[in-house]
Each structure stands twice: as C-alpha cells, then as structure tokens.
Amino acid sequence: MNEFDLIQSYFNWQSTDPNVLLGVGDDAALFDLEPDHQLVTSTDTLVEDIHFFRDTSPSDIAYKSLAVNLSDIAAMGAVAKCFTLSLTLPKINHDWLKEFSASLKKASRLYNVNLIGGDTTKGPLNITITMMGSIKKGKSIQRSGARNKDDIYISGDLGTAALCLKKMNEGIKPSLNELNKLNRPIPRLELGSALKDLASSCIDVSDGLEQDLSHILNSSDVGATIDAQKLPLGEELSQYIKETNDWLLPLCGGDDYELCFTADKASSSKLKKLSETLNIRVTKIGSINASNELKINGYDGSSASYKHF
Length: 309
Hints:
Blueprint: H1 3-10, E1 20-22, E2 30-31, E3 37-47, H2 58-75, E4 79-89, H3 94-110, E5 114-122, E6 126-136, E7 151-155, H4 160-169, H5 176-183, H6 189-195, E8 201-205, H7 209-220, E9 223-227, H8 235-244, H9 248-252, E10 258-263, H10 268-278, E11 282-289, E12 294-297
Parallel strand pairs: 4-5, 9-12
Antiparallel strand pairs: 1-2, 3-6, 4-6, 7-10, 7-11, 8-10, 9-11
C-alpha cells in the first residue's frame, strides 16, 4: 500500500460542512469563511514516548490529537471548522490504522469539524494536527488582554491527568476517570465561544497552570495572586493532597486542557449563570495586579511545569 492508497482507505470520509469546497485528495483544500470573520489556526504535535505511552490505544491517540488542538481554538473564543492531519508511521499496520481512523472520524463528528487534507510519511510515530476555526473580527480572546484587578478563573478541575501520569510512572494502576482525564480531555468549545464577550484574556492549561498563567501575565504586562486552596480539584486529587499536602500536580502538572481566563469583577454574575447553563465548573482562583509577578499563596515549591526543551 502506498501513501495515496493509505489516505483513500483510511482518511477520505465525506465532509459534512458545506463551506468545505475541496477537501482530501487535491494539492490543497478550499473552504469559505463567513463575511467579517477571521481565520484562527493552531498546530500541535503528539510524539510517541513524549506525549503518549507506547502502549496507548490508537483510539485514545486519535481522540487526544484532535482534542488538544480544539482546546487551543476554544481558548481564542473561536468556532472550530476543519483540520489537516500529518501522520508519521514506522510501518503500515492496518489494525492500528483502522482503530485510529475510526476514532478520529468519530471525534471529528462529535465536535463538528472536518478533515480536509494532510500528509503521511515514514518514521517514528507522531501525529500533527492543524486546526482551523473562525471568529468575528475583533472578538478573539488573546493572552494580552488581562487588566489590573481582573479576576482569574479556571474551568473544570486541575491535576487529575498529572496524577494519572504519576501513578503510571510509578507502576500504580490509575482509575478509569484518571485515564480519561489524561487520554480523553474535553475541549471547552462552548465555554470558549461564550467567553468572547466576557473574558479579557484566556489560555488553555496544557503545560501546567503556573506556566500557562504566566504566559498571560507576561503578554499583558501584569502580575497576579492566586490561592492554592481555591484550585478546583477532582475527588482523587483532593484525597491525594489531603494525604501528602503536595500541590505540585494541580499547579504545575500538564494535560488539563482547561481554560484559564480573566474577566472584570462586573462579569461575575454572568459567569456564574454561564457556568450553570453549560454545566461546567468555573472557579475564581485569584486576581490580577500590577506587580508583574505571580504569587501563589499556600505553595512554597519551585516551578516544575512542563518544558519541551
């Protein structure tokens, strides 16, 4: 089987978006944008033994590859539209490809995005997805918008994926909930889209809250104080911290893919209502100040957030 046969066999399903004029099978894709809208793009690569274990199922790898890119689109307040896939394989394994492509197709239908092209090559296993979305001009949520006295919020809960990874590295079997947090994060697309009229800045928490919030502070030229005791935690992590008093996982652990955002104090009641409407936990964890530093009350440890290099 050559490259083109592989694409036709596993990645050439029908687009469901009428704005996709030309998808998989040509030199490039064509799709329409709504009038007065901007293109939003994001690219993430997942590499075997770096971003997922060698024995991770093809189904989980496909889902997570898509979800982490959707999370970036959510952080901008945009609507996800379509994506390209670059797949590097050490060899052609039809069972692996069937499971991977079926999961990718299912996830793309779940989140209403369409595969429109990509590339396949031979080499160590890695998956690169470029996601494209759309947002009305002037409405994107950027990291540089945080202002003095804004409140800081987190969606969902933090640290469960890091706890799962810790257990796996120590040879301890994680719970199904912990595995799902690591392998099948939920991109907060509805929340992100709704925040475009409420949030002053936003970022998705992929490399750890301490590091990712610092990106907002650096881009906005502000500081912040957050309270470790106010961080939203899942049941397993709450029990772990009760036993260890180790706040490293929710503060510096990666793979949460929750939204960290800022908003002025006048928006608190609207955010509470939005949280109830979407049935998504939204927690205020601190506030922005003019110090140009990040202070974490209740934590004295050093930064251990994930760094690629």
